[in-house]
Fold:
Amino acid sequence: MSAGHSHDHGHAHDDHAHGHHELGFIRKWIFSTDHKVIGMQYTVTALVFLFFGFTLMMIMRWQLANPGHVIPFVGSMLSKQLYAGYMNLATEGVLLPEGYNALGAMHGTIMVFLGIVPLAVGGFGNFVMPLQIGAPDMAFPKLNMMSYWVFLPGGLIMLASFFMPGGAAQSGWTSYAPLSVINPGQTAWLVGMIFLITSSLLGSINFIVTIIHMRAPGLTMFRLPFFVWAQFVTAFLLLLAFPPLEAAGVMQLMDRLAGTSFFMPSGLWVSGKAAEWVGGGSPLLWQHLFWFLAHPEVYVLILPAMGIVAEVIANNTRKPLWGYRSMVYAAAFLGFMSFIVWAHHMFMTGMSTKISTFFQTTTMIISIPSVIILTALVISLWGGSIRFNTPMLFAIAFLPMFAIGGLTGLPLGLTSSDIHLHDTYYVIGHFHYVVAPGTIFGMFAGIYYWYPKATGRMMNETLGKLHFWPTFICMNCIFFPMLIQGMMGLSRRTYDPNIYQAGLASLKLHKMISWSAWIMAIAQLPFIFNFFVSMFAGKKVTENPWDSTTLEWAAPSPPPHGNFLTEPKAHRDPYVYSPPGRKDDFLPQHVVLEV
Amino acid sequence: MSNHSSTAAKDTHAGHHDAHSPEEIQKHVRTYLVVFVALGALTAITVGVSYLDLPPVKAILVAVFVASIKASLVALYFMHLISEKKVIYVMLGIAGMFFVVLMALPVVTETEVRSWLRALLMKYVP
Amino acid sequence: MDVAIPCQVKPHPVTGIANGKLAIWLFLASEVMLFGALFSSYILLRTNAETWPRGHDILSVPLATLNTAVLITSSVTMVMAWAQLMMGNFSKGRKYLAVTLSLACVFLVVKFFEYKDKFHHYQVWFNTPTMVAGHEVTTITGHIEEKTDDFIKFLPDPPKGHKAEAGHHEPIKIETSQIKRLSNYGPWHSNFFAVYFTMTGLHGLHVIGGIIVIGYLLGPGAKLWHRDRQFYINRIENTGLYWHFVDLVWIFLFPCLYLI
Structure:
């Protein structure tokens, strides 16, 4: 809210280009209220977190491929006892089971809550959405800034937990009680989560108000780009699904700090002793509340990626999206259904067959809107003169990857097959296909696509392709074997696969997966290089390098504070590509046709 | 900014003059006082009933019923939900749907809860 | 902020409300889900429990009734503040706002004494059934008068319904070896108190939040009235919506925790 500033700041938009030079470095880049800067802050922070989460996984992969061997490079570092009572992850260079658990829990938490969501919503949503709706900024710029500055401490607390007494959380990203209440390290996780939830709450309110109130004249809801719709549904999911987890987090914190027994059952024994808790609580209550958030969270992860892919596909096939309206309805229906499927994560908790039948049915129903969106995107490719640039490669790769991820989910949603597959590597393979080659490919497509808008320079195409192909191959070499391992019966949280016969048989696959993971790490180097060097050395672009139609391309690249030089107006649907009878093969939303 | 806001404020004032004239607000104030008295009376009733030591199910039904009336009064009159804009109803409708699911959470998924409900039904439904 | 944000003060031409009001309602929707999850957990824990105390017996209904009255009154004064400002009476509006603020503080003070009472109220569970005041019991409640390593001097509560002759009971001495468990009525005592402290605590935090915002609007934030009257009234209205919601949550907490 701008009440604090009485000085009039040039409403004639021409002033914008040179009207803001008085902002110092700190106001412009650190405590900025500009949605684009906040979006970039989110993007860079989230990419760093993603890389960190990936590093944790690479250490775990060493243990899985070479159980009990000294970890190269970082083994001695992880074995150092920093202070008395410090939980080091390894001894004599070999990863400890507790260390493995901590790495696993933090990998999941960091990837989901500190990596993908901030990147997809905080990064892309913040940067692109106001531009696409033709708004000068978000509805509450200060709230937007606060959302980032609440997110960052939450993330730092999570990271710092590795160095706190008791170490990081060790109970999986799902933090199932009673284990999570007993294990050390969980308190920092819970405090961090409360920060993150607060941040996404502030963000989602801001998003919804911005989309409802700040669309450019003429930009009706059904003229919105699909990406904006995806962000709109996502914001509702964040708004309504996160508070129950916040409540559950508070209750778990009470269990840990105030000795309450919300999630602690009666008669609990811990390490051969009767537990101190009075009992009478319900461990299942945690699972219900957790999945009440975490299932909608899955759609928080995937919807923005679908939105990005839709933008990139429409642009690079040079034809309108096929079935735009059905995609919008499907996204809304997806959001609605995502609230009534959560218990399919809990078929094995002894729930009654009637209830599991209900959740099995809703789970099958929710696959329909996902398939509608995917089908619409695939049909959109039909008959297009496709430009195979880097963003398009990632966007096209998203389609089969997400399809594999989605289809492998069906056996998990059916109670009878879930009995065999529950908590095996199959589950890991399934959701990683959705999130890693699925969502992350969407994110990469978005970065390559909007990079020129953010910096005014293109990323290098050759390096982009050098990034895409090995990543694409490695992703499949990592996650496809996991599906096989899971069907062999390998339990997902095993520290040492050798202890089972099934594990022994899957060791070769583990070696293949681990090597692919390390090669994929190397394949990210061209991207990192490209990302930083292109800021100074990339080819300079004008406002619309991709010949695109949506409103963000009407603003200069990079857009100034306040975004547009003249207030944009939308005159038509978002994807008018190859309209008949015109010389150009695209007709932007803001262009006025002379009759 | 200031120029912009003050013109905006004037516009709003002009646009809303009919609905928010001083006479209209005076009427509102009278409503608030009536609601205040009603809330006080309902509080007295619910506290009074709690001293009657009714059987648990009846006590719960009465207490929740009275609380719902009180909450509705606050929401309708103090929070002006009785004459709100459509967009707010839509938002609250969406939230309401998910709220119902959330409240069904213990009821649909805990075996003990279901047997408890069944026992309750057997007892009170002929 | 240097960028002019549309609909900050003026209602949006289509929705008919300004940004702030839409945002506060969205925030309240999320709050409904937050407290909804807690109520839902409460129902689940209570229906699963073998025994569940009646709040009436172990909490102070008179104090809670007083607090209910305080909070309802503060809701009325809040909406009156808005009405006065709408009629252009700045000073009257401020007075109502000040009353709201003080009632919010009164609520917290009463709550503080309620909490304090709980932390000084103890329950003792015996290892074996023990004779206390002519009855064989496994557990008694009351206050600790003296505590050493070997024994506690314990003043039992008068039996229910005998509050009139409260002066007659005497402190008893309980050996430490007799005690299976000793706990005050803190959140660790039982799931009832876990629910009680978590829900009222979270509600209390919301009251504190309200005090901060109302305090700001009464103090430094009031300057806005002279610069942009409508903007100030909007803020009062939105704060009011939040404050009524805090009241509304209490309206459900009060019977659920204290009366049934």
About this structure: Chain C touches chain A through 46 residues (CB under 8 Å).
